[in-house]
Amino acid sequence: MGDTFDVAVVGAGVIALAVAEQLLTAGLTVAVVGEASGLHPGHGSRAAGAMLSTFSEIEAGHDPQRVKVETGERLAAHDAYPAWLDRLASPGHRPELTSGTWVLAAANRAGDLTPIQAAAAAAGHNVEQHPGTQIPGLRAPAGSQALWLPTEARIDSGLLMNALTAAVRRHPNATWYDTTAVAVSPGCVRCTDATEIRAGRIVLAAGVQTAALLPGHGCRIGVPPILAGRGVSMLLHAPQVSVPHVVRTPNAAFACGTHLMPRHDGSLYLGATNRLSVDPDLGQNATLDEIAVLATDAARHLDPRLTTAQLKQHRVGYRPYTADHLPLIGRTSEPSLLLATATYRCGILLAPRLAALLADEILHPGALDEHPYRVLRPMPAPDLPAVLDTGASTALIEHLIQAGAVLPPHVAAQLAAFTDVMLREAAGQATAAGHALRRLWGIAPVVESVPALFELPARLTGGAR
């Protein structure tokens, strides 16, 4: 039967490895189950730009209680980062943070900066207002406005993942199984190569694949649905654009704005799209539409010179998240099975904080019983009218015109089909498409479903009636 470990950690992304490293530091024996090398298709950690966005993810429509919780946890993670990077350091090498983020908004969207500025000021962090044209190295649109957040940092995600991997692999109490888990049950992880790994406790940190590893997809042990936000990012060669810091726009079009940042090899990272996927295919490559949206938004919202940048590489990653958009950390109703996932767009920022919380729960069961991120928390699904009240309709228009200011013909067809269904339903005529819309909302009751809801009638009917 082989060795029995104190803990088995399933996953090889930033959260999984951060948890493993924290547990090893606490003196436990740890098995890591996940691919140690290769392309890691679909991994959000390796496709991420790694902005440590303590404030710049905040939107005007966010619930104040959610903002309070998330800002508090992000600041705690921010404070934990220096000591964490010291632990990950190897002789002659330590991943480094680069401080400073610019948040750039077009003249007609300057109000989007207000909640970001208010949150930073309330937390006692410096924040400055500037014309967008003052951002170093950038040719920002005329009339744009910007915030300078000197304490918001970034880190190179590739260097961080290399350091985390090395720190875990060199620890004497770690055993890395370079394989893929296919099923998890109390005390046992079963893998594609027929390996069975025994452990007293198992932490599932496999991102969007987490629930699929559990019998019945985890519903019997209190695991809520875990949704997937598909993101495409690029690495560019653009010597004509030299920015020393992160430059990003506020969240828009159901995504984390458009963001640009330098990498250690001289390239520029450009990200990122965000599209709901209820059935993620980790091997699916980027579509031309996703590439076009990213390239168009970069030139329109950040710097027109980016149209001449050369595309060196692109990546696709899937971000796990829940209906309330908060992480899942801690015990399920089966005490030996724990989760560390659903970090959405802040996994790299939150990694040291969530690893410490999870380790505390393992060492002191019940430590997270009142934490807002606990797995077994109430999670009522919002209804569609409530989501629309948050500005989803405006975000839908932004989503539709990302590739240009004129609706493409296929989008016009989608709009016609969607309007047809809505009018029929409003008149009391039940339709198959209306039923399908309600079914999709039941599967994924989150704001990111709105684009999929819009597109569904046209997919079912082959276009407008």
Automatic annotation (TrEMBL):
The record, for InterPro entries, names:
FAD-dep_OxRdtase (IPR006076), FAD/NAD-bd_sf (IPR036188)
Report the GO terms under cellular component.
cytoplasm
Keyword field contains Acetylation: no
One GO MF term on file is: oxidoreductase activity
Stretches assigned to the FAD dependent oxidoreductase domain = 6-360
Q: Which SUPFAM superfamilies match?
A: FAD-linked reductases, C-terminal domain (SSF54373), FAD/NAD(P)-binding domain (SSF51905)
Which Pfam families does this entry report, sorted A to Z?
Answer: DAO
User: Keyword annotations for this protein?
Assistant: Oxidoreductase
Q: Which residues cross the membrane?
A: none
- Protein name in the entry: Oxidoreductase
Q: Please name the taxonomic classification of the source.
A: Bacteria, Bacillati, Actinomycetota, Actinomycetes, Micromonosporales
